[in-house]
Amino acid sequence: MSLDVLEPGKSALLVIDLQNAFIHEEGTLGVSGVDTRRLSAIVPPLKTLIERFQQADIPVLWTLQEHFATDHSRAGKKLANHTARRKQISALANTWDEEIVDELKDLAAVNPAHVIRKHRFGAFHETRLEILLRILGVRHLFVTGATTNACVETSIREAYLRDLDVVAVDDCIAGVNGTWETTAKEVWQQYFCELSTSAEVASWIDEKSRPRVLEYGHQLIMVEDIDRSVDFYTRLLGFSIRPAKPLADGRPFTAFRQGIALIAGKEAGHRQIDHIAFEVNDVRGLAARLKEADVHFFNDLHDGPYGLSIYVRDPDGTKIELYETGAAA
After folding, report:
1. VOC domain location, by residue (predicted)?
2. Where do the structural domains in the chain lie, given as residue ranges?
3. Domain 3-209 in CATH 1.10.150.170
4. CB distance 109 to 138 below 8 Å
5. Residue 147 carries which DSSP code?
6. DSSP per residue over 267-300, as a string?
């Protein structure tokens, strides 16, 4: 699968249960006879990947599995639950077993608000993860962590059922049984997600971090009689007006939610398109590239209505606005 269709601005990395209970040889799985070396092997590549996401300012979300010595909900079950197969209850609240492994602890502390406690396998089940993803504008979820056939798989299924684009980072996911993992990943690829490697994901971040246009912003049309034109677009075509900041030069200006805006000043026989605007990810980097190419600038970096902006001329003379939302001079 090509990751090119995904956007960092709509993405997040989910790190599932990188806790002593499941990774450390002295944690619950280790003392219960599980060979934790295959689990701890994901820590180095995962650490590198987490750091790359944080450097790119892409959210990193963590789940922390937490259990209690007394669990009346589970106590009501007639059949043995999975915790009965271990020497102790894993990840007891307020214990070393529950803590994130030392190698990743400082990275999780970068944003404590992105650490989500859960009491069952699923990262979404009765947690605040879903609303947090909506708040952050996340549509693409890169999934990592432990263990493959329990918490990771449950979370992948939950994410897919919420119509998120899911990418499982293969070398940053581990479980207790290699055979189970192979089968699970075959099922995932068939139904729930795409598989990628941490190196491929890092390359995707590098490529997407280069200065580039993100999406179409708007087109500004120059008109002779703005009142007449506004009436045409609203009353006859059903356009709706979008609140917008006034232009710096004070010319009458009306923006529509349908993607165009009108500005007064057109003279008979004059061009109608004032400019076309696009949102970009790094307007400073793009400005530097365009200057190196001797592109003509109408306006250099300045605070525009939509963010830090430049206006340049394309080869045919059309004025192009390029703006970075949230940036300022």
Report:
1. 215-325
2. 3-209, 213-324
3. no
4. no
5. -
6. -TTS-SEEEEEEEES-HHHHHHHHHHTT--EEEE
Q: How far is residue 17's CA from residue 62's CA, in Å, rounded to a whole number?
A: 7
Q: What is the pLDDT of residues 71-97, one digit of tens each?
A: 777 778 778 777 666 667 888 989 999
* Architecture, CATH, for domain 213-324: Roll (3.10)
Residue type, 312: V
pLDDT per position as a tens digit, 240-292: 999 988 787 888 889 999 999 999 888 777 778 889 999 999 999 999 999 99
pTM for this prediction: 0.88
CB 145 within 8 A of CB 14: yes
DSSP for 214-272 reads: EEEEEEEEEES-HHHHHHIIIIIT---EE--PPPTT---EEEETTSEEEEE---TTS-S
Alpha-carbon distances, residue 179 vs 184, 185, 279, 323 (angstroms): 9, 10, 47, 50
Fold matches, 3-209 and 213-324: no
Contact 328, 308 (CB under 8 A): yes
